């Protein structure tokens, strides 16, 4: 039987505040591969190793939710072969990575419009979700075919329909009600909004990732490419988060 061994990096940390929900834009896989004169898909493969390392470390540190931007609604414009490859990743993910996550009490969930995903991709994710659904540890939340504006459009349509159906009036629409119509409503109530959003590879954009939920998030940008980020990168991001003072509009 194939067993997967991950090289552990030693990262001793004394961190006071652990962000409960971390969102990650895993960018730079393509450039990582190019630097090594390898095809882009090798970067995505290495990106999965990095994701596994970061997930286990985050779970050890007591993070509750890790939402990872694995495929955006805009990523369909990539070359067909690359899209096909990215869509095959969850299948490999289930065989090679989920057993270790399951042992670590990690629960797999997803957000996004999964109706457009190929059947094999969705099946693999559903198997991961089913296997881990009773786990009580970190939630690894895949944003797949996710787009923040599309999520808001869909919420507005449902809210409008509920008003037409006289379930409530426009006067009842609050921030809290809107949040209940977003994809992140499937997360535990206290951890729906990310405390910290990380983007790797030097890009300084949110790219349609959790625009509503990130209203009060801290942002951490690093030039490190996603496959190189790993445990050390996560700890550096949390150390920086510890140096920030979140005021939520207060003093
Ligand atoms: C961005 O790098 C990365 C992606 C679009 C895909 C990320 C996916 C993974 C790391 C694996 C996810 C795992 C599962 C199970 C779905 P890029 O290609 O935009 O890099 P570049 O900016 O250097 O070209």
From TrEMBL:
Belongs to the UPP synthase family. Homodimer. InterPro entries: UPP_synth-like, UPP_synth-like_CS, UPP_synth-like_sf. It comes from Streptococcus hillyeri. Substrate binds at residues 28-32, 40, 44, 72-74, 76, 78, 199, 205-207. The active site is at residues 27, 75. This is Isoprenyl transferase. Keywords: Magnesium, Metal-binding, Transferase. Catalyzes the condensation of isopentenyl diphosphate (IPP) with allylic pyrophosphates generating different type of terpenoids. One of its GO terms (molecular function) is magnesium ion binding. Its EC number is 2.5.1.-.
